[in-house]
Write a structure and sequence with these properties.
nine-stranded antiparallel sheet; Jelly Rolls; mainly beta; seven-stranded antiparallel sheet; Immunoglobulin-like; 4 domains; Neuraminidase; 8 helices
Length: about 900
């Protein structure tokens, strides 16, 4: 008997067959590249590469992702097929291959990714690894963006077109399809079970190389787990696409996190290098490495024991020791302090603390601060004794290497401190350095926080600062100075930047000036008028508590933009100055509407910032174009400005302003072109003046010392120049960095000089500190008479003859003695001696000739026949501020009968 199939059953079967697909693995020969988390990736271990599993092409092994940025790791998940590994990137990690190896796909292409977002942060899932092949997918503000970008590499930080919503914490299959059309590309983004989005992109670039976890410049990382990634050199038909999706979803399912093994310390060791460092600053002598396995139940380091064995004279030379932690990053930075030591510097030193360790190699840094009296040639060294840890197999761990080769030698060198690095505080980039010293001696470093990209305004940019109370050795947290709400519609990020900083030494107030761009109101977008929707705004912020907090923005556009027919009017980046009469001065610049014909001038206040006025322009001629100036006051009372020139033939522009009846009425000298520049900002500083009792008038200037006859040149050879004739000549110069950009100089309270500058690597920002001894190469002594060639040159001595014992100026001090105390050997009025002693009741005020910014000690003794000189309490390190210094010595029942002043040599 034959029974017909009931129609409902037939319909059910048809529906079943149309919705369920086989989950067979794709054919490796049909894929361009294929990366599986469960092949070649070890859970809980660092990823060292991701091997291609596809078999197409002449040499498929070249398609392997063999380059690593950051520390991507293997992460374990539970799947229908058991525990498998995936690649975890934490936002600072990437796995990638070059276009030379991975190749380039210039026609149709498809990338299929099974992944899970692990945070709501922005960042790139993938991108090309070359500027000519930026095919990419990223997250911005909660949305996926997929697209193409043309070269140059600066476009790598650009946004793309929004496609589909981003969903953190959920495993999803994404299909990114790029179909090459005649003069455009059809882009389709599909999320299995989450819809699809298609649009036409005007670009036709291909995929050149591949980077997973970051963008083309190995930045803008995305916190993401990637289980599997397939690359096809074609677009997929609907059936093939559904098959790949079915394969991935069947294999991985709704994967859950597998519990990690407990963490334990498997090794500790130490490394160090050889380096010459100055007898100031904070020097990371020993890198202590603590290696862990597992990540469950993290353990903590509670103690590090070490010695300063190998140092020449640690007991005398070392002021303090600090211990810093940088996680799994092998870059010394004085940010996260574990502990410090200021006691005896002999024997074993044990520092206690509590630092939870990370998976992998943890880096601790033993940093030594030497005393200024520590001699050149002495060694700073350290040896690791043990570390103490908690947890599984915890206790005291002995190092595999305790005394590695290497030591630091004290000498004539600068001190360097990495202050800002890409990714700090979640920012993409930092730029535009400013540096000042407050009336309390605090260093204030200002900078742009370029949150989303390196681009100039208009963009999401804030101005921030950091403070140092120990001469730049360590710095406090980032503090916002100026910030406008980026979420205001039509504001284009509502950014503010390109700041300059100045300190009012009469009131203690710190002022920061910057350009606020509401919408496209930066240089190119500014028009006539003063309204926020017409032109860039000249804004200030003030701090009256040493930089800890800052006022709301103060808008002075109507005062600074003296001619409303100008375009953008804004401050010259870096720093302002205060004149001897108390006037505050900000170097400034303006353009025509639309950004042309840049001119420079200055904005000033004679009432401590209550109101502001402007000077005339340096020149009213249409050419040359100039901008980004800084200023300094000359001994004559004139104001010298130096400016970036777009048409200066490869040289800086200089002009001097002579006030007439007031600062608003005066004349600028004709432009002078001197010192090479690559078209870049520079910074100038009054270091010393004979008006203040200094033996020499000294101006310092810094910029990249490179140029081209026309146009831009590479920003290399960051150089410090010194003039001793009020800028007429600059005979002394020395390179402080091989590659750098913008910079800002400041005279520090101890006589050293600070420079805050943009370093070459991704615009990191570095604080460096140097002495005049370094700048003038005080260790170069051709005739070996104890005096530097520079000193002999400026004093008319013979650097080829031993004339140290002579007294050329007849002041009773030998040439060598004058060199050692900082006075001049060719000027009898420049002599180190006690000039007065006045007793009032129980106090004797002792006065002596001093050199500003040099240091002295007051000592007493009961006898001259058998002297036993003792330093008076409070007089161990007196810093002179002028050409005369004094100290009140208690008398009557106090210390000895005889008093002397000792110059400390720095």
């Amino acid at each position: 008997m034959i029974f017909p199939i009931p129609r409902p059953a037939f319909l059910l079967a048809a529906i079943f067959l149309s919705t369920v697909r086989l989950s067979a693995q794709p054919n490796p020969a049909t894929c361009y590249a294929w990366f599986k988390g469960d092949v070649g990736i070890t859970s809980w271990a660092a990823v060292t590469g991701w091997t291609n599993q596809a078999t197409s092409g002449a040499n498929p092994s070249l398609h392997t992702l063999d380059r690593i940025s950051g520390t991507p790791t293997g992460f374990a998940v539970v799947t229908p097929g058991g525990v498998k590994s995936v690649v975890r990137c934490d936002g600072a990690d990437a796995v990638w291959g070059t276009s030379a190896n991975f190749g380039s796909l210039t026609s149709n292409r498809t990338l299929v990714v099974f992944c899970r977002l692990t945070s709501t942060n922005n960042g790139f899932l993938f991108d090309g690894s070359t500027a000519s092949g930026m095919t990419r997918a990223q997250i911005r503000s909660g949305s996926w963006q997929v697209g193409l970008q043309p070269s140059p590499i600066a476009n790598g930080a650009n946004a793309d077109v929004n496609t589909l919503p981003a969903t953190p914490g959920v495993w999803q299959t994404h299909v990114f399809s790029f179909e090459r059309l005649t003069n455009s590309t059809r882009v389709t983004h599909t999320i299995a079970g989450g819809g699809a989005f298609t649009y036409t992109n005007a670009q036709t670039v291909g995929l050149g190389g591949l980077i997973v976890g970051r963008n083309v410049s190995a930045s803008l990382g995305l916190p993401v787990d990637v289980a599997e990634l397939l690359v096809f050199d074609r677009t997929l038909g609907s059936t093939e696409q559904e098959d790949v999706i079915a394969y991935l979803q069947t294999k991985w399912g709704t994967a859950t996190d597998a519990p990690p093994p407990d963490m334990e310390v498997t090794l500790c060791s130490a490394t160090q290098t050889n380096r010459t460092v100055p007898n100031f600053g904070l020097h990371h002598v020993l890198n202590v490495q603590v290696v862990t396995s597992g990540s469950g139940n993290p353990v903590a380091l509670t103690n590090i024991t070490f010695s300063l064995a190998g140092s020449t004279d640690a007991a005398t030379d070392v002021k303090s020791v600090k211990l810093f932690f940088t996680g799994t990053t092998n870059t010394a930075r004085a940010i996260n302090q574990f502990s410090m030591h200021t006691g005896a510097m002999t024997g074993a030193i044990s520092l206690a603390g509590n630092q939870v360790l990370q998976s992998g190699t943890n880096h601790f840094w033993i940093a030594i601060e030497p005393k200024r009296t520590a001699p050149w040639g002495h060694l700073l060294d350290a040896q690791l004794v043990s570390v103490g840890v908690t947890g599984t197999n915890g206790g005291t761990k002995l190092p595999a290497v305790s005394a590695p080769a290497g030591a630091f030698t004290l000498g004539n060198a600068p001190f360097y401190n990495l202050l800002r690095a890409r990714g700090d505080n979640g920012s993409f980039e930092f730029r535009i350095p400013g540096l000042e010293v407050t009336t309390n001696g605090t260093l204030i470093a200002t900078f742009d926080v370029r949150w989303d990209a390196i681009n100039d305004l208009p963009a999401n940019i804030d101005v921030a600062c950091m403070r140092s109370t120990d001469m730049g050795n360590t710095w406090g947290p980032m503090i916002t100075v100026l910030d406008f709400d980026k979420n205001v519609p039509g504001s284009s990020g509502n950014g503010v930047g390109d700041a300059a900083v100045v300190v009012d030494r009469q009131t203690g107030t710190i002022w920061v000036a910057a350009l606020w761009s509401y919408g496209n109101r930066s240089i190119a977008g500014s028009q006539t008028g003063t309204a926020t929707n017409r032109t860039g705004q000249y804004v200030l912020a003030r701090s009256d508590d040493d930089g800890l907090t800052w006022s709301a923005p103060i808008n002075i556009t109507e005062q600074a933009k003296a001619n409303t027919n100008w375009g953008c009017t804004f401050v010259g980046p870096g720093k302002g100055i205060q004149l001897r009469d108390g006037t505050l001065v900000f170097p400034s610049q303006h353009t025509l509407p639309g950004g042309g014909q840049g001119k420079v001038f200055f904005v000033y206040s004679m009432d401590h910032g209550n109101s502001w006025q402007v000077s005339p322009d340096v020149t009213t001629n249409a050419s040359p174009t100039m901008n980004e100036n800084e200023v300094v006051e000359l001994n004559s009372g004139q104001i010298l400005t130096t400016m970036r020139m777009s048409s200066g033939g490869g040289f800086r522009g200089w002009s001097t302003y002579t006030p007439a009846s007031g600062l608003s009425n005066g004349n600028w000298s004709p432009l002078v072109f001197q010192l090479p520049e690559p078209i870049c900002q520079g910074t100038i500083l009054r270091y010393s003046s004979t008006l203040d009792g200094a033996p020499r008038d000294r101006l310092l200037f810094s910029n990249p010392s490179n140029s081209a006859p026309t146009g831009y040149a590479p920003r290399i050879r960051q150089t410090i120049y010194m003039s001793e004739d009020e800028s007429a000549t600059w005979p002394v110069s020395r390179q402080i960095e091989a590659q750098a950009g913008y910079s800002c100089l400041a005279a520090l309270p101890d006589g050293t000089v600070g420079i805050f500058y943009e370093a070459p690597a991704d615009y990191d920002m570095v604080f460096a500190r140097f002495s005049l001894d370094w700048l003038t190469q005080a260790d170069v002594d051709s005739d070996g008479d104890g005096m530097s060639d520079y000193y002999e040159g400026i004093n008319g001595l013979n650097s080829g003859l031993n004339d140290d014992a002579l007294d050329n100026d007849g002041d009773g001090r030998s040439n060598l003695q004058e060199f050692l105390v900082g006075t001049m050997a060719n000027n009898a009025q420049s002599v180190f001696k006690i000039t007065g002693a006045q007793r009032t009741n129980a106090t004797l005020t002792v006065t002596w000739n001093s050199v500003p910014l040099r240091h002295y000690a007051v000592e007493t003794s009961d006898s001259l026949s058998a002297p036993n000189w003792t330093v008076l309490a409070g007089a161990e390190e007196l810093r002179a501020k002028s050409g005369q210094h004094n100290f009140n010595v208690p008398v009557g029942g106090g210390p000895g009968k005889f008093i002397r002043i000792r110059a400390l040599g720095y």
